[in-house]
Structure to design on (796 residues):
């Protein structure tokens, strides 16, 4: 019933499921390992006879009780089987970075919320990798806040690899390509309609050489972004948010902010509405045409900019008085958020169709959302101004 | 940014946008006619430079002030240019039927609601066809009730036509295939968590011979169904609903109910959840291997069965007292409804991507919906029983 999906290398992920580069496939029996809820209760599943045209599934995750020091395979982490230099590998340092970001963001959010606490779920996959989901739900300030990290070891079809980065030697016919991917993803939905939603996601992707062509080149790239989705515009807030993004970018390359700002406006486009999900920020993907260390530093800088970009805004707006009408408009915009994430977001749609951890993927959805038939804000109203800025993206910094 | 979609002939539509058989395409300039909201206000659109990989768009609709006697082209309706026999054509009779069903259902719903009134929007498309959307929002009984009819004249790629019904003569290389499609679609969401949501959709599809191969065979088929989505199970209600569906089926063919009941369970499957949207009913598509008159009668019988199948249930449950917990569970199930419609429903996803009338397509979404992280009903609870029945479809009639 599902359309087959084979993501192009330019596909992008912004959901809490940060890996979407390829239609993963597994030559093992995990192909039949369809996603299922891990019910504490005992509802037995019917055997469902849908034709499974999905070309890949991710291994089913297993809940674990304690978060491990690392989700890397031993051979990757400089432990028993690894060399000590592996501890300094980009994958090891990237995992360390995203876990530190998860910790610092969660700490900052609990402090702002002044009541809500994050619930943590940790899981691992038999073939290596795993993740930590943290969710704060129905707090004082946040309706729903999810901050996830995950590490995935997978195998992708050689066609995808070749499509991604053509191998110079056309004679090489690689087999399945092992890959590594790691990322942090977060969506924060506050209760107050004047406090904006924010989303960020930073990820690193690396392929091994194909198993049967060990001489073929490895590949790596970085992707990510941070974007703001208010229901009402406070220009000072939007400017502050964008200026922090620009500041992070400018430390590395003056071309980054204008380029990634536009990329963000283009990516978060709800095509059927002709409008963007929100007021943007920065977004980039498949970034590998710079020095690898520089891009690791850049990703780290961006991820560390989330707190200074966002927390002052939510602090300022969390207690602003509002009416039922303000709340209803926020809920309508939340409906747009749902539409974008379920219809367009590559990470979400890929995750849903390949058997990622559903509750982690869909924690990006707001606690509540609303759809009114043919709602049209009055010209010149605050709601109209927001919609206008979603339809016609603005340059916030001059 | 969008994956290209080319629906197979087995694709199915259940949304309020009943036409999804093919990736429509138009050789005219309407290809660039991206969907846009018809704002009463004057927000100017930015020119958006997304690559448009969608292979087809539907012509932009124009609001009209009065509903016409028919949406058929003159040549189809036995009018000025048509022959009088056209008034008895299947397309003419099908349009008459769906418009009568729209009227009778809306009348019955307003009566049950005892307050809410339907708002009507009528539109037409320059190349022929059009539709009537009727929405009752925030009534006494119904949170949101949409009942739409539409008639589409379009052109589809010859590949789709050939895939649909292989042409015996392999030498025929047809050009674009003109087609006709008409349908009624409806989703009714009551407020009371004990009153179930119902959806129905009946549609008729017909191709002309290709313009450059007038001798090639015409094709036609019928599709549709009616299905029930409660948040709580009252067995007598579900049995009543299914028995009315079975009654309609049994008048025509004893194999219909078991076959279409299973088809319904299979279609409304939320794959990433491993559960169905609701408790089913009947669903069929691409039906053309019976007498055409018989199938027209059968579709009519099914559409006319909506009122006796549903109205007694909503009458019985609309005033049942409920708690906040009951409401929250209904809202969670509404979230599942949104997930199915935006992620899987062929009609919705097709409509969104080809430029159908957005407000008509998305009127199927509930007024409000909810997503809680990792919600799991207590074993044996009423919520658990509903979930169990969505995971393991039951035979309601014995």
């Amino acid at each position: 019933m599902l359309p087959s999906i084979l993501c192009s290398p330019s596909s992008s992920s912004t959901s809490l499921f940060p890996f979407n580069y390829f239609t993963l496939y597994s030559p093992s029996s995990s192909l039949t390992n369809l996603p299922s809820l891990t019910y504490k209760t005992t509802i037995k599943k019917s055997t469902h006879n849908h034709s499974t045209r999905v070309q890949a599934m991710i291994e089913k995750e297993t809940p674990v009780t304690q978060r491990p020091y690392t989700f890397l395979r031993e051979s990757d982490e400089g432990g028993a089987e690894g060399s000590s230099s592996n501890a300094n590998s980009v994958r090891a340092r990237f995992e360390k970075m995203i876990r530190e970001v998860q910790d610092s963001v969660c700490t900052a959010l609990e402090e702002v919320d002044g009541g809500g606490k994050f619930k943590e779920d940790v899981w691992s996959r038999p073939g290596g990798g795993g993740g930590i989901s943290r969710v704060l739900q129905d707090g004082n300030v946040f309706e729903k806040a999810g901050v996830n990290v995950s590490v995935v070891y997978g195998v992708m079809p050689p066609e995808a690899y070749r499509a991604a980065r053509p191998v110079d030697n056309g004679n090489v016919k690689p087999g399945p390509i092992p890959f590594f991917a790691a990322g942090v993803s977060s969506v924060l939905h506050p209760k107050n309609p004047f406090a904006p939603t924010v989303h960020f996601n930073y990820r690193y992707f690396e392929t091994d050489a194909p198993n049967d062509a060990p001489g073929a080149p490895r590949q790596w790239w970085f992707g990510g972004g941070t974007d703001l989705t208010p229901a009402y515009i406070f220009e000072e807030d939007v400017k502050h948010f964008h200026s922090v993004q620009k500041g992070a970018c400018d430390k590395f390359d003056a071309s980054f902010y204008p380029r990634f700002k536009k990329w963000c406006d283009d990516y978060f486009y709800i095509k059927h509405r002709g409008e963007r999900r929100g007021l943007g920020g920065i977004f980039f993907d498949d970034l590998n045409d710079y020095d690898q260390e520089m891009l690791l530093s850049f990703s780290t800088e961006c991820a560390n900019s989330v707190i200074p970009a966002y927390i002052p805004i939510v602090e300022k707006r969390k207690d602003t008085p509002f009416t039922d009408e303000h709340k209803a408009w926020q809920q309508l915009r939340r409906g747009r958020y749902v539409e974008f994430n379920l219809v367009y977001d590559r990470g979400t749609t890929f995750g849903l169709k390949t058997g990622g951890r559903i509750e982690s993927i869909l924690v990006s959805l707001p606690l509540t959302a609303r759809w009114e038939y043919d709602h049209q804000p009055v010209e010149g109203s605050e709601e109209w101004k927001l919609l206008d800025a979603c339809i016609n993206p603005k340059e916030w910094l001059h």
